[in-house]
């Protein structure tokens, strides 16, 4: 059976690598890291983060941003770019055939933390009535639907760091089922907060490398954890027939996806990568491709010892040693629920441009990983079939197959 291809007709990106697709792609291809000392974290045990650079909502004409959490603001800006890229005008569409599926792992945590401090310091009478409309996990999806008049299914999956990939997978299924003609899909996150940074630091998950510029170093023998980031990635998905009827050429196609649970531990991956193997095997089967046909993997590649070892073994065993692997987290840091959508977008751009971004900061590949990790420079390569891996706390795994 020919796999169902969800055409990626638009991409919007707001990440530490830049605002907009051109800036993102240039920085990721250059392997230029975004990690830096963060003055807002001065009193915390880890002071490094990956922030969206020079982000001021009013500079982008985002009306209503004062009533949105930062994660929603990122989403609205990315969605606006994605729709423009797809040459879609909400004034012209049938909103009942437009779905929104936008995931997040943390939601409006900045709002919730701020209002909790207000509750403790000043009492309940000073808590903002906008706390829940700004802070809930579904509000980015809700605001996008409101802002663009999308009246189809509106969903907000939460699968931790796999949330954005879950959203894209669900979006493809909605198209395949005929429940929508257009899906605005992706993920957003703004988790650089005292609570999140302190919690990850206590778990020893964050890098404490003395040089922020080289702190996020996936697959490197000296890696010591990830750098927390923020941002949003939004893809416009359509059926191939719908895109063709509009005369739009897709960037790439999502032709398969697989999901699984480790059923093992809340934070640590299964030591043999059982859940990752199940998800990747399911994605390959859904796409109707063999592992050896996959030319490129945008790895989850968190820069943690456990993930990188486990994921490398899964890639080697299921895809073979010829698959060209990269982790763009060396540039962006770990964007949690947004990372999966951002990395799916980077994978689509890799397929489109035939250029694999390098894994930034990788100087000494850990012995025994036995995978072809692209580093030092971007690698020109014809990539017909690629995979984007995303694995989340709770052992929740999603793999996407993206093709030309």
List the SSEs and their pairings.
Layout: E1 6-15, E2 18-19, H1 21-30, E3 36-37, E4 48-49, H2 70-85, E5 98-103, H3 109-122, H4 131-135, H5 139-148, E6 154-155, H6 163-177, E7 182-189, H7 194-202, E8 231-239, H8 240-246, E9 252-261, H9 274-287, E10 296-298, H10 305-319, E11 324-326, H11 329-332, H12 337-353, E12 355-356, E13 372-373, E14 379-380, E15 385-392, E16 396-403
Order of helices and strands: EEHEEHEHHHEHEHEHEHEHEHHEEEEE
Number of continuous helical runs: 12
CATH topology label of the largest domain? Peroxisomal Thiolase, Chain A, domain 1
CATH class of the largest domain, named: Alpha Beta
Mean pLDDT: 96
Number of domains: 2
Q: What distance lies between the first and last C-alpha atoms, to the nearest angstrom?
A: 18 Å
**What radius of gyration results from the CA coordinates?**
20 Å
Percent of residues in β-strands: 15-25%
Q: Which class best fits the helix and strand makeup?
A: alpha/beta
Protein name: 3-oxoacyl-ACP synthase
Pfam families: ketoacyl-synt (PF00109), Ketoacyl-synt_C (PF02801)
Family: Belongs to the thiolase-like superfamily. Beta-ketoacyl-ACP synthases family.
GO molecular function: 3-oxoacyl-[acyl-carrier-protein] synthase activity
């Amino acid at each position: 059976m020919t796999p169902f291809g969800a055409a990626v007709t638009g991409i919007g990106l707001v990440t530490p690598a830049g605002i907009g697709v051109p800036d993102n792609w240039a920085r990721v291809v250059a392997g230029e890291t975004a990690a830096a000392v963060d003055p807002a974290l001065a009193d915390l045990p880890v002071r490094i983060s990956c922030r969206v650079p020079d982000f001021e909502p009013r500079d982008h004409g985002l009306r209503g941003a004062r009533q949105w959490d930062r994660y929603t603001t990122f989403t609205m800006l990315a969605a606006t770019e994605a729709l423009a890229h797809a040459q879609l005008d909400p004034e012209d569409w049938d909103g009942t055939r437009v779905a929104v599926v936008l995931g997040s792992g943390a939601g409006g945590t900045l709002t919730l933390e701020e209002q909790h401090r207000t509750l403790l310091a000043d009492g309940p009478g000073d808590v903002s009535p906008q706390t829940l409309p700004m802070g809930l996990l579904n509000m980015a999806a809700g605001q996008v639907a409101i802002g663009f008049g999308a009246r189809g299914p509106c969903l907000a999956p939460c699968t931790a760091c796999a949330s954005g990939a879950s959203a894209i997978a669900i979006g493809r299924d909605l198209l395949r089922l005929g429940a929508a003609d257009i899906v605005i899909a992706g993920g957003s996150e703004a988790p650089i907060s005292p609570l999140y940074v302190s919690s990850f630091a206590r778990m020893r998950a964050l890098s404490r490398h003395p040089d922020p510029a080289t702190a996020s170093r996936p697959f490197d023998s000296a890696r010591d954890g990830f750098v927390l980031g923020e941002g949003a990635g939004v893809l416009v998905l359509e059926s191939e027939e719908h895109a063709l009827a509009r005369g739009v050429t897709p960037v790439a196609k999502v032709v398969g996806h697989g999901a699984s649970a480790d059923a093992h531990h809340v934070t640590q991956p299964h030591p043999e990568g059982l859940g990752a193997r199940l998800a990747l095997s399911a994605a390959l089967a859904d796409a109707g491709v063999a592992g050896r046909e996959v030319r490129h993997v945008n790895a989850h590649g968190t820069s943690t010892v456990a993930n990188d070892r486990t994921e490398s073994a899964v890639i080697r065993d299921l895809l073979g040693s010829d698959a060209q692997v990269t982790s763009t987290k060396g540039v962006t840091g770990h964007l949690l629920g947004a990372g999966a959508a951002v990395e799916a977008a980077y994978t689509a751009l890799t397929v489109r441009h035939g250029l694999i971004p390098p894994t930034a900061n990788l100087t000494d590949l850990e012995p025994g990983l036995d995978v072809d990790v692209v580093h030092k420079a971007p690698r020109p390569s014809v990539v017909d079939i690629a995979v984007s891996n995303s694995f989340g706390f709770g052992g929740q795994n999603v793999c996407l197959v993206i093709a030309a």
